[in-house]
Amino acid sequence: MAERDASTDTGAVSEESGAVFCRDPIRLSTLTKRGEFLAAARARRQPAGSMLVQARQRGDDDPAIRVGFTCSKKVGNAVARNRAKRRLREVARLSLPGLGRPGWDYVLIGFRDATATRPFDLLQRDFERALRKLHHETA
Predict the structure, then answer these.
(1) pTM for this structure?
(2) What is the rounded distance in angstroms from the CA atom of residue 2 to the CA atom of residue 70?
């Protein structure tokens, strides 16, 4: 079993598996208020093949990464929208701790057909590419 090396503060690599463990896990919280979504809509946006990613730096002292998910009725009925949002949530859960920036808000907007039907590895690649482009502009 992989063990955590306590010799560094930022993280450690397990010799057994090569996995990197982060000492301070990044907190992901969910956007819930309409104003938070509207603020993200006024900021940067990057279309990806299967979604639109909006991102904004909050400018407060909270280091949490906040993320919101939305799909319009054009995506389909409630079942289709919920399926698309579940896939977006999983993509964000897997990718944001590594590529997201503390103090930023992200909104993932599902597209009709593409979000629900695109293979998951391509959906994740779309999201990661969009994040890199969004943050490349600020670097």
Answers:
(1) 0.77
(2) 37
